[in-house]
């Protein structure tokens, strides 16, 4: 920049934000270059000369920018080395149009200020402000004379300096100036009429009322002055926002908000942050666009502090009306727009259209227009920071599949203004490097190209609102199942869909993964014939891993026999060729899908559970099932009784574990003898047990309980099933605070009401409770050892031990 002799008028927020964002050329009565609010008129000869010079010089300068890693602004490296490109700089053509004109015009699109061949477009507010400024300025006002005036003039010229030791505020101005800015300082004082002398290598500039001593700094580089300036002009954040609300850019607003969101996530992560929690006390450095949080000895940490901080911040954001402000965007080039569009279509077809609930998909917005890009600052949307354009779609749900909307779709809003629900599905990575933002905002999840879905549920109505929305945004239908049929994904789920369709009598098969707590793989299967459940068996239950496939055949036969006896459960669909299907060497069974709900958390319908279990048992008592006794309770008991001694050393981990092991040690000898098991089994009802009587394996439909998942089934005393249910319902799955062994006796008594125990069972019930309690205690300890961060398994083990202790 040139040397500023006097700032006649300056106000960085006097005008409104620029209205125009275009750069284009046109030919009318002459050739025009339009850049935002500026228009330059050129003749053909002038334009040809301008184009040639600009093309040559811009290439040269761009190379220098790349080589030197140039950064914008007076605080980056612009002052270190001036660069002038003089290639083809001398213009041979004269200004043809209006070389001496000045004109002010009131036009249809605003006010035009013509100066020679340049036209500047102003709106009414800006033009009136400009006329007020011109009428108020005094161009004959004296140059800087006093200490404060001269110091401000040095700053206005962006001189790199510090105040020297010779400085006496208000009287003598002592400056230590960067060596590369000494010529500029000399020119400043020459222009404003100061006399120049030298004293002992110190340049002295003397005016009417002020003497200035200037020395040069040999050591500091522009980066040093950058740091100094960063902290020289700070403001209270909301004072700055209030004062500059009309001039601060949308990018800078989002950058400020991004930093606050990053502070929120830092605190939420549990890191102790010693900063002031009141946003009204925060500072802002315009030079570096950084928010400064003053120190506070009261550290912030955890979700509660983070939410309280964000609540205060949000209130001020609303008060100053800087909430939903979109930053500027840099659009991708045409070639990549086309590539990205194809990638978007592929992703939606493979990951959205393949879902059973999806009937139709529409695309709109930037993706449909092929105007995708990256934001010049993160787009702050609540606590989400978006780096790139969203991919806006509308999904129409099959009216018969509304309950099957994928669980991994993240619900944001149950009903938006267009009467659709809003879900966030997944992201497509941005092509450009996002490392800068990751370093600047290290604690914040950064969103790239988000697939933002409006989801239309037909049962809610509002079809007119849906159609109006699609028309308004010129949406394009990219998938229609009624026309294109079922689409299989290209990955594992697509392969499973093809396998199921090949081996079972089903049409239009779609397989979707289920989020269930099991080491086996469970999938939901949709077809024209109905909904099913596919289970791939990978791990064993209460039997060795080597017998997984053998147990699957046992489960297949057992369920078939139970169904023949009228027991309600999930029926198995046979493969076309008979037998059991194998998928990637894992045996698999396809079950009919049971309607209803699973009550994993109390309150449980204990009466329905016990009634259903008694029906399963009575069906066998009245009609014995003839199956080989391949999996017995004796085998299961031996596995866990043999394992128990191996965990005794864990008693030294804590006093509570020692107490629990002491309890179980006292009963171990009384139940560990398998001969005693055989003796006590005489006279009891022996049948095929479900093997895992937990609420997670019981479906409730219209008050009726239905057992499913016979993965742990075995042949043995029925009382094991009954007591297993009593233990599991008492321990309430994963809900530690709901453990309550009063449910134990309620369940046993409820079962007795439907299927009374015989004399042998009643006589030895204490033995069976202790035996099963020891087995369950050992199972909990085994899982605890393998990794139980929540402490659930240890708490369940203590509960079992305490219950066993209460019986003696």
TrEMBL record:
Membrane-spanning residues: none
Report domain Aminoglycoside phosphotransferase positions: 518-723
**UniProt protein name:** Aminoglycoside phosphotransferase domain-containing protein
Q: Which residues form the signal peptide?
A: none
Natural source organism: Oceanospirillum multiglobuliferum
InterPro entries in UniProt? Aminoglycoside_PTrfase (IPR002575), Kinase-like_dom_sf (IPR011009), NT_sf (IPR043519)
What Pfam families does this protein map onto? APH
């Amino acid at each position: 920049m040139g040397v500023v002799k006097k700032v006649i008028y300056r106000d960085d927020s006097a005008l409104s934000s620029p209205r125009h964002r275009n750069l284009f050329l046109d030919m009318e009565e002459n050739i025009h270059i339009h850049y935002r609010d500026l228009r330059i008129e050129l003749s053909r000869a002038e334009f040809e000369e301008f184009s040639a010079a600009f093309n040559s010089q811009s290439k040269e300068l761009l190379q220098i920018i790349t080589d030197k890693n140039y950064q914008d602004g007076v605080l980056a490296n612009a002052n270190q080395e001036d660069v002038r490109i003089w290639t083809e700089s001398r213009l041979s053509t004269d200004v043809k149009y209006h070389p001496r004109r000045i004109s002010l015009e009131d036009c249809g699109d605003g006010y035009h200020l013509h100066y020679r061949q340049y036209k500047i477009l102003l709106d009414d507010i800006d033009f009136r402000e400009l006329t007020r400024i011109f009428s108020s300025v005094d161009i004959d006002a004296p140059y800087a004379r006093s200490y404060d005036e001269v110091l401000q003039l040095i700053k206005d010229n962006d001189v790199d300096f510090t105040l020297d030791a010779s400085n006496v505020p208000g009287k003598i101005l002592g400056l230590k100036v960067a060596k590369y800015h000494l010529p500029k300082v000399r020119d400043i004082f020459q222009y404003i009429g100061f006399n120049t002398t030298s004293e002992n290598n110190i340049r002295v500039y003397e005016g009417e009322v002020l003497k200035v001593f200037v020395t040069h700094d040999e050591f500091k580089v522009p980066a040093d002055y950058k740091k100094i300036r960063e902290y020289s002009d700070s403001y209270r954040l909301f004072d700055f926002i209030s004062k500059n609300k009309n001039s601060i850019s949308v990018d800078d607003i989002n950058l400020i908000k991004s930093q606050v969101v990053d502070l929120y996530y830092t605190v939420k992560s549990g890191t102790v942050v010693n900063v002031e929690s009141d946003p009204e006390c925060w500072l802002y450095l315009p030079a570096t666009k950084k928010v400064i949080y003053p120190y506070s000895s009261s550290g912030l940490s955890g979700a509660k502090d983070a939410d309280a901080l964000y609540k205060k911040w949000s209130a001020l954001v609303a008060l100053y009306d800087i909430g939903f402000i979109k930053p500027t965007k840099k659009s991708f080039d045409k070639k990549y727009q086309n590539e990205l569009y194809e990638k978007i279509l592929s992703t939606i077809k493979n990951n959205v259209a393949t879902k059973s609930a999806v009937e139709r998909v529409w695309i709109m917005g930037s993706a449909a227009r092929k105007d995708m890009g990256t934001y010049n600052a993160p787009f702050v949307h609540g606590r989400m920071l978006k780096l790139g354009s969203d991919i806006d779609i509308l999904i129409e749900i099959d009216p018969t599949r509304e309950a099957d909307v994928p669980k991994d779709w993240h619900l944001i809003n149950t009903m938006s203004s267009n009467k659709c629900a809003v879900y966030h599905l997944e992201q497509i990575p941005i092509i450009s490097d996002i490392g800068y933002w990751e370093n600047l905002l290290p604690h914040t999840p950064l969103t790239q190209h988000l697939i933002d879905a409006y989801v239309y549920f037909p049962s809610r109505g509002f079809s007119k609102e849906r159609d109006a929305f699609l028309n308004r945004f010129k949406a394009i239908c990219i998938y229609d199942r009624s026309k294109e049929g079922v689409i299989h994904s290209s990955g594992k789920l697509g392969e499973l869909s093809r396998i199921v369709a090949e081996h079972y009598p089903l049409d239009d098969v779609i397989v979707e993964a289920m989020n269930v707590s099991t080491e086996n793989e469970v999938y939901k299967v949709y077809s024209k014939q109905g909904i099913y459940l596919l289970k791939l068996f990978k791990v064993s239950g209460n039997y060795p891993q080597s017998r997984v496939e053998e147990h699957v055949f046992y489960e297949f036969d057992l369920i078939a026999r139970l169904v023949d006896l009228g027991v309600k459960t999930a029926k198995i669909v046979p493969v076309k060729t008979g037998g059991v299907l194998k998928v990637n060497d894992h045996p698999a069974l396809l079950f009919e899908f049971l309607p209803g709900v699973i009550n994993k958390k109390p309150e449980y319908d204990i009466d329905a559970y016990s009634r259903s279990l008694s029906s399963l048992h009575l069906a066998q008592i009245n009609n014995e099932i003839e199956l080989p006794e391949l999996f017995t309770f004796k085998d299961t008991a031996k596995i866990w009784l043999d394992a128990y001694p191996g965990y005794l050393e864990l008693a030294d981990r804590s006093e509570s574990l020692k107490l629990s092991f002491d309890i179980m040690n006292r009963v171990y000898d009384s139940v560990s003898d398998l001969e005693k098991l055989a003796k006590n089994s005489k006279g009891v009802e022996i049948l095929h047990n479900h093997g895992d009587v937990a609420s997670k394996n019981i479906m409730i439909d219209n008050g009726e309980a239905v057992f499913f998942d016979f993965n742990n089934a075995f042949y043995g005393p029925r009382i094991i099933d009954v007591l297993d249910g009593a233990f599991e319902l008492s321990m309430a799955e994963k809900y530690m605070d709901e453990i309550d062994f009063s449910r134990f006796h309620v369940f046993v008594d409820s079962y007795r009401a439907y299927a009374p125990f015989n004399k042998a069972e009643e006589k030895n019930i204490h033995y069976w409770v202790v035996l099963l309690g020891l087995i369950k205690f050992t199972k909990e300890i085994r899982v605890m050892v393998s990794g139980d961060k929540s402490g659930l398994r240890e708490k369940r083990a203590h509960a079992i031990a305490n219950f066993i202790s209460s019986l003696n």
